[in-house]
């Protein structure tokens, strides 16, 4: 990446971080950058937000049942949303 | 696939970071991911695959706006400003490599995350009912889908719903939920309280508003209102609302009762056309009201149409909706009930006036309503006015019009035939307009009956055409009082002009007035003189011996021998002699009078009482003339003649002095009386009669209608009466005057006697000296003969002288008495003159006293 782009990216990230602080989202810079990257790739922001909420709410998640596991493993690669 | 891998990696990292936020070093990407994170990853994948497209549209600025608004709502307006600033910088970094392409999604992401955090921070037990779940969790209802029966879901259910048991809401001890608690308790209370559904109540209220008793709502005579039967238990609020709505039913009952009452009464008792019009108008309004009720009833069974099909609603009409619908009919019905109340006992024009008073209202709805109502109510009234003003017809069976007519004779048609009935005068017709209306119709009737004239019909059509309405029915209505007024004014103008034309041209009103002045008020001098000359000897007899035919014949001859013979025969025809009823001891002078016969239509002006007043004036003037005539007669005898001088020369000196003084006193007295009478006569003739006449003439010129003419004539007569001391205020003066007149007559007879005595004495002496003369010659004849200085019979001379002396002395004494009386009376008369209120009497005083003779004689009396 050229330095121009890098600077732009950095600035954008700074601005986004600032905005996120104002909105009191509790995200740190790195997480935010990941999220921004994911958004840019076209993921649904609602989904991402839900994901964030879920994962944040229950950090001490309970033990999953074994039945689910196998299911989840299967569709990991298949069902990713592909974007144009 | 590279993309996918990248995504996967990123997600993995994200998950790691989120799961262990307290780990600061991001380089902890160990290949051995814990079980937890594995689960989390899988779960994350699941979530990510669940929804492809966002639920709201892509719009950067809108999103930014929304975020700003949220911030402001939370009270962080400075933050909002900062955010705006940042956003502008953020969005300016566009379309260069390295910048964020999907800014909207970033913003949206941030927004949703912040909202979630906020909600979580506020309470952790907000989510209690399935209904709210979707909004709370940021729009993810799919999380709780039935088909997601995996552990995740069940785990979430457990975490979220603390005792979620489908339908019944649980209460948490959180302070901010008190409102919710209250609502729930209220809903429970309502369910317990109401036994009946609202739809039934609504239907009953609709029945009540038509005056019909419903199942639950009935009319209670004791309370005089519609009440819910007590057995039904309804919440108090509903009961109050039902009662309020039933007020409409009560009002409706009242109005309907009045209408049916009037309808029942109308053939038997006289409700009147205005009352009937009022009922008709009310019924029209009620039919509008029925239409509204019919529509409402049809709607009351339908449910409310809603957009979503799954939700259900109540009936279209709830009590509250009904109260909104009823607002306008309630106002109208209340108005109608008020009008019914105030018109219960009124009829005709009074009813219209009372309703009009209520129409003075600022609200346009009320105004419009009243205008419609009044238009119908007043149409019979206006019709009556129109027919009265244009045709003189008074078809008023129920006595509702404000013009009352009564059958009278033709001559009092104008004065008493019609009058205003102020009780029936509606308040929007002013008094002056009503008077004009009365006069116009009266004029038409007068023309029709008294003058036998048909020309007024043209005048009426002209008037109607001028105003723009027709002479047919229905031209005018309420609210067009101006039009009515202009119609009346035009009609009045034309009809009055026509009437004046008829009076002056066809019936020669002016000529008749002049004739009355000439004959009754003694304006025609030569005629009066002849009449006096001829009639005088007759009238000196006693009243009951005089025959009126003879006097009438004398009147004829007087007319023929004066200029009056050239007058219009029609006028002369009407002049008659009238002998008034006499008592005993009356002379002819007291009962004689002239009369003028004024026929229809002039006898409207010259009524009986008016003629009586003319008679009074005539009597006075006639008396005055008689006095004048008497004095002139005395003068004829007092002028120096031979007899007197012969007698004078023959007398002895002692008697001579007496003779001379007597004669002189006689002459002086005569002079005074003559002065008085002449001036009084002059005053009456010129200052009173002529002046009043010219005023009357001037007023006749400008008189516009018969009322004006009558008024002018009244003033004319009144001024004559006042100024000639015949009025009520001058009664004492009048008496003094008549006493003066009597005194003058006495003087006349004394003067006559004096002269007769002198002549007799003279005749005696000449007789004695000229015995050859014919003794039977009348005394008057002997005046003409110049008697020479015959020799006195010496023997009879002394006796003669003595007798003459005695005679002269008595005469002198009498004259003295008369003179004293006269001067005292005159003094009293003149003293009273300045006190009189009438200005013109000062002129009389001036004439009588222009040399100030009397005021100098008695200075203290006159106050000079």
TrEMBL record, chain A:
Task: Report the principal subcellular site.
Answer: cytoplasm
Query: Species name for this entry?
Result: Tetracentron sinense
Q: Which domain of life is it from?
A: Eukaryota
Cellular component aspect of the GO annotation = gamma-tubulin ring complex; interphase microtubule organizing center; spindle
- Keyword check for rRNA-binding, yes or no: no
Please provide the record's keywords in A-Z order.
Answer: Cytoplasm, Cytoskeleton
Q: What is this protein called?
A: Mitotic-spindle organizing protein 1
Return the similarity comment: Belongs to the MOZART1 family.
PANTHER family per the record? Answer: MITOTIC-SPINDLE ORGANIZING PROTEIN 1 (PTHR28520)
Q: Where in the cell is it found?
A: Cytoplasm, Cytoskeleton, Microtubule organizing center
Q: Which GO terms describe its biological process?
A: gamma-tubulin complex localization; microtubule nucleation by interphase microtubule organizing center; mitotic spindle assembly
From TrEMBL, chain B:
Q: Name one GO molecular function term.
A: gamma-tubulin binding
Stretches with biased composition (Basic and acidic residues): 774-784
Q: Where in the cell is it found?
A: Cytoplasm, Cytoskeleton
Where is region (Disordered) located? 767-789
- Domain Gamma tubulin complex component protein N-terminal, by residue range, is 202-505
Q: Does the keyword Cytoplasm apply?
A: yes
Q: Which Pfam families match?
A: GCP_C_terminal, GCP_N_terminal
Protein family: Belongs to the TUBGCP family.
Its recorded name reads Gamma-tubulin complex component
């Amino acid at each position: 990446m050229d330095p121009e782009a890098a600077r732009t990216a950095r600035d954008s990230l700074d601005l986004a971080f600032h905005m996120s602080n104002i909105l009191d989202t509790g995200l740190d810079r790195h997480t935010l950058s990941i999220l921004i990257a994911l958004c840019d790739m076209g993921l649904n922001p609602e989904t991402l937000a839900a994901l964030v909420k879920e994962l944040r709410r229950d950090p001490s998640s309970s033990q999953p049942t074994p039945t689910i596991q196998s299911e989840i493993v299967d569709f990991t690669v298949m069902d990713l949303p592909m974007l144009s | 696939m590279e993309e996918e891998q990248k995504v996967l990696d990123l997600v993995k990292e994200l998950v790691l970071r989120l799961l262990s936020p307290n780990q600061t070093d991001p380089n902890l990407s160990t290949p051995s991911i814990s079980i937890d994170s594995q689960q989390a990853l899988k779960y994350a994948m699941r979530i990510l695959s669940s929804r492809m497209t966002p639920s709201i549209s892509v719009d950067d600025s809108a999103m930014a706006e929304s975020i700003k608004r949220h911030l402001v709502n939370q009270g962080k307006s400075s933050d909002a400003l900062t955010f705006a600033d940042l956003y502008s910088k953020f969005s300016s970094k566009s379309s260069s490599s390295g910048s964020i392409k999907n800014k909207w999604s970033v913003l949206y992401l941030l927004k949703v995350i912040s909202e979630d955090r906020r909600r979580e921070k506020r309470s952790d037990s907000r989510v209690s009912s399935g209904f709210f779940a979707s909004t709370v969790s940021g729009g993810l209802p799919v999380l709780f889908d039935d088909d997601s029966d995996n552990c995740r879901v069940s785990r979430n259910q457990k975490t979220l719903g603390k005792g979620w048991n489908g339908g019944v809401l649980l209460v948490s001890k959180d302070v901010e939920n008190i409102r919710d608690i209250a609502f729930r308790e209220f809903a429970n209370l309502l369910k317990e309280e109401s036994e009946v559904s609202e739809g039934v109540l609504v239907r009953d209220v609709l029945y009540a508003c038509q005056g019909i008793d419903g199942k639950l709502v009935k009319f209670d005579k004791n309370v005089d209102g519609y009440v819910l039967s007590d057995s039904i238990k309804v919440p108090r609020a509903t009961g109050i609302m039902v009662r309020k709505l039933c007020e409409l039913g009560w009002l409706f009952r009242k109005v309907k009762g009045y209408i049916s009452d009037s309808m029942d009464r109308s053939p038997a008792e006289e409700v009147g056309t205005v009352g009937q019009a009022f009922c008709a108008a009310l019924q029209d309004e009620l039919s509008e009201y029925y239409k509204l009720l019919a529509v409402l009833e049809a709607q009351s069974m339908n449910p409310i149409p809603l957009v979503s099909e799954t939700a259900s609603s109540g009936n279209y009409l709830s009590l509250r909706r009904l109260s909104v619908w009823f607002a306008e009919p309630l106002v109208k019905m209340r108005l109608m009930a008020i009008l019914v109340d105030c018109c219960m006992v009124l009829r005709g024009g009074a009813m219209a006036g009372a309703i009009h008073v209520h129409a003075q209202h600022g609200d346009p709805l009320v105004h419009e309503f009243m205008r419609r109502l009044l238009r119908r109510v007043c149409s019979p009234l206006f019709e009556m006015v129109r027919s009265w003003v244009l045709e003189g017809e008074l078809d008023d069976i129920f006595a509702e019009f404000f013009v009352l007519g009564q059958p009278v004779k033709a001559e009092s048609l104008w004065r008493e035939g019609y009058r205003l009935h102020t009780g029936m005068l509606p308040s929007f017709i002013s008094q002056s307009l009503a008077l004009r209306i009365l006069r116009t119709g009266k004029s038409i009737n007068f023309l029709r009956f008294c003058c036998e004239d048909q020309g007024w019909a043209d005048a009426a059509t002209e008037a109607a055409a001028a105003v723009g309405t027709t002479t047919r029915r229905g031209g005018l209505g309420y609210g067009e009082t101006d039009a009515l007024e202009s119609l009346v004014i035009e009609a009045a103008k034309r009809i009055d002009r026509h009437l004046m034309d008829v009076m002056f041209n066809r019936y020669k009103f002016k000529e008749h007035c002049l004739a009355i002045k000439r004959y009754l008020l003694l304006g025609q001098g030569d005629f009066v003189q002849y009449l006096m000359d001829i009639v005088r000897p007759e009238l000196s007899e006693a009243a009951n011996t005089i025959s009126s035919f003879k006097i009438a014949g004398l009147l004829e001859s007087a007319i023929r021998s004066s200029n009056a013979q050239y007058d219009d025969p029609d006028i002369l025809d009407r002049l008659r002699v009238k002998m008034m009823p006499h008592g005993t001891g009356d002379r002819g002078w007291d009962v004689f009078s002239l009369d003028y016969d004024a026929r229809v239509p002039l006898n409207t002006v010259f009524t009986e009482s008016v003629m009586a007043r003319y008679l009074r004036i005539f009597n006075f003037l006639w008396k005055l003339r008689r006095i004048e005539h008497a004095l002139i007669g005395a003068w004829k005898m007092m002028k120096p003649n031979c007899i007197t001088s012969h007698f004078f020369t023959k007398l002895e000196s002692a008697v001579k002095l007496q003779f001379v003084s007597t004669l002189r006193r006689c002459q002086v007295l005569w002079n005074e009386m003559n002065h008085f009478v002449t001036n009084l006569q002059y005053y009456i003739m010129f200052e009173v009669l002529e002046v009043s006449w010219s005023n009357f003439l001037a007023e006749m010129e400008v008189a516009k209608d018969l009322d004006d003419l009558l008024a002018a004539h009244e003033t004319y007569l009144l001024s004559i009466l006042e100024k000639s001391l015949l009025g009520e205020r001058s009664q004492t003066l009048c008496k003094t005057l008549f006493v003066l007149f009597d005194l003058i007559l006495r003087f006349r007879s004394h003067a006559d006697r004096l002269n007769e005595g002198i002549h007799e004495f003279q005749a005696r002496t000449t007789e004695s000296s000229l015995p050859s003369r014919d003794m039977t010659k009348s005394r008057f004849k002997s005046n003409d003969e110049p008697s020479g200085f015959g020799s006195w019979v010496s023997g009879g001379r002394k006796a003669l002288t003595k007798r003459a002396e005695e005679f002269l002395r008595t005469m002198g004494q009498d004259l003295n008495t008369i003179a004293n009386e006269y001067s005292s009376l005159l003094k009293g008369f003149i003293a009273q003159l300045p006190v009189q209120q009438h200005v013109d009497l000062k002129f009389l005083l001036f004439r009588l006293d222009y040399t100030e003779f009397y005021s100098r004689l008695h200075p203290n009396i006159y106050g000079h």
